[in-house]
Amino acid sequence: MSDPISKDWNYHPDLPLADGSIFKWPPKPGFLARWFARNWLSLSERVIMVLLAVAIWLWIYPDFADAKTIQAGWIFQVWLANFALVALCAGTLHWYFFMRKGQGSELKFDKRDMARGNKLWKFSNQVHDNMFWSLTSGVGVLTAFTVLTMWLMANGYTPVITPLSNPIWFALSLILLPIWSAFHFYWVHRLLHVPFLYTHVHSLHHRNVNVGPWSGLSMHPVEHLLYISSLCIHWIIPSDPILVIFHVIYLGPGAAMSHTGYEDLLIKDKRRLALGTFYHQLHHRYYECNYGNQEMPWDRWFGTFHNGTPEDTVETRARKKRMYS
């Protein structure tokens, strides 16, 4: 007998989805050790982001002293760096997966390609529409928060550390920032699904039922403000420019990676880099579910978890009907 859920997807992992939260209770030391090793003791996407953040701070971003005063020169330098980060990440992923077809349909969730010839999208083209919102409002708001954070740090208005002066807190911050971002994203995302905000703001992002790399940062400017406000944590806790840039990469290029539409990058038939998750792909398909990500337990705790099965699809659709009735 065929699996009915498989008819809706090109690929999906084993279902129902397992509990991937690091906040399982009671704690499972073996699971936590494997999670830590996978994310921080291998060449994972997070380790790559840290290495990239160090390189950008040393050779691309303006000198910290320049940020003490608001001047067009260094602000443009930050904007250009952020523009290049988003464009190169999303553009390279789109070229490899959707233009070159470098992986074919292996590990691709949705059967469809990117939409064309539909007036739903600016320029009647999903990719061009996504590029427009990502590279204008997305990069603009990301740069505004980055510039303000750098200015606050340079002028001593926020607590500043260095990797040498506070190595333990620096290392701990690298681990905690993605967890903080997931916490922040869940609650902002729930807010954006309030009917008024969904209709006037978040629906722009949700036009991407079938996602691609350029979909990740394709949002309404109000949503960009809410989503990227995650960076405000650096205004409160002791931080370092490398931590800020890591966070910027996680929110900007990281969104392109998580919306690639493929679960992993395959090299010689081996999974080498984690990309999208079926967890979030279900949200783009069914809307009122899986507002967070797999590392945080909020969807399970608050009854909005979709485990990928037909039964959960029925429940999710019923919840959506109740919300918008």
Quick recap:
This protein has one domain (45-286). The chain has helices at residues 29-40, 45-59, 72-99, 126-154, 167-192, 195-206, 221-228, 241-251, 253-258, 278-286, 298-301, 310-324; strands at residues 264-267, 270-274. It is mainly α.
Write the layout of secondary structure elements.
Layout: H1 29-40, H2 45-59, H3 72-99, H4 126-154, H5 167-192, H6 195-206, H7 221-228, H8 241-251, H9 253-258, E1 264-267, E2 270-274, H10 278-286, H11 298-301, H12 310-324
Antiparallel strand pairs: 1-2
Helix pairs in contact: 2-8, 3-4, 4-7, 4-8, 5-8
SSE string: HHHHHHHHHEEHHH
Q: What shape does the CA trace take?
A: globular
Q: What would the average pLDDT be, to the nearest integer?
A: 94
Report the C-alpha radius of gyration, rounded: 20 Å
- Sheet-strand content, in percent, reads under 5%
